Every structure is written in C-alpha cells, then in structure tokens.
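Risk register update: the risk of archive-format incompatibility is retired. Evidence:
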Amino acid sequence: MNRLRAVSACAGDDPDKNVEVLIGQLVKMLKNGQEVRLSKRAGNIITLEDLVDEVGVDAARYTLTRYPVETSLTLDIDLLTSHTNDNPVFYVQYAHARISAVLRAAVEKGIDWQKNTFNPAVLITSQEAELLGALSEFPRIVAASAQLREPHRVARYLEELATAYHSFYSACRVLPMDGELVTDVTNARLLLCAATRQVVRNGLDLLGVGAPEKM
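Archived output:
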C-alpha cells in the first residue's frame, strides 16, 4: 500500500486522490469435486495464467468479477468449463448467441427488422414487460458499478437479463411460422431481441468478456 502511494507520488499524482486499493479475499479451487490444496512452501500454487489455460479467458474474467472483492471465492473448474445453464458465463453468452440466431433467421425469412420503427404498445405480455424493465435498468447498474467500484453488479445484472430473455423467448413466438404474415408484434419483438443483444454485448464488453454469435 505505502509503496503504491510512493510510486504514485513519484509519478506526480496525489496519493490521497489517485490511489485506491481494493483488497481481495482468498480464492479456493475445486476440481473433480475436491479442493485443490495450495501451498507456497510446497510450491503448489496456481497462477492466473494457469487458471486461464484451464477454463479460458472469458470464464476466468467473468468469474473473478462476478463476486464482491470482500467475498471469499470458490472456483469450480468443472463448472466453469461446462456448457450448461449452471455455468454463469455460458448462460449469459448463450443468451447473446440465441438472439443472434433469431435475428439471422429473420433475415433468412426476408424480414428487414432493422428498418422498422419500435412500437412498444403492442408488447402486452408479462414476459415482454419484464424484459423491457430489465433493459431500462442497465444505465443505472453501470453507473452504480463504477461509483461503488463493484463490477460484480454488471455480471449479476447480465444473468438476470439473460433469465428475462430466456423467459420471453419461451413464452412469446418471435418469428412467424411459414405462411404467416409479419405483423407489428413480430417487428416489435425482433427489435426487443436486438436491444437485448446490444445490452448483453455492452455488459460483457465492460467485463472484458466475449459475446459469441454462435455456440
């Protein structure tokens, strides 16, 4: 702490204004259901590079920012490498990939949704309302995360947004069936999908995590 303040002062900064140190807690590692025992004396340590090699950059970054710095963290290697909804980073990334697939399918059907005007009045289901409400929260979440130095708020928000989207997707048919006309509801739902994809991508980008188009 004092060394960081000294370096800051040497660089011409005011340590009282330009240096803020957040102390993290211990991190435990689980693999095959067993805790990986770490020991400095025995030379049994796991570096951040080791973690990235094991689970990938996206999973490592997302997981390390998903919890408050003052909270002890347990990393389950098997969970972080699984392609299931129990894996938080997969769950959020899958929402982005699913929306991307829907929008690609719309283009394949000849629906030029990008030229449409959004009419929220035709979105009347509870799932649509919940998704719209979740999207409106994004600016507040980002502002609070920055002000409080708590990036985990963005990660947890993305998981809630993904849940809202998956619920909407299950309850509301977005694309028309073959032979059906494209309606105002179709257009509004497609634009709602596009807005959700953009917010998910923006949130993941803030965390330094990729937003895949396909999974």
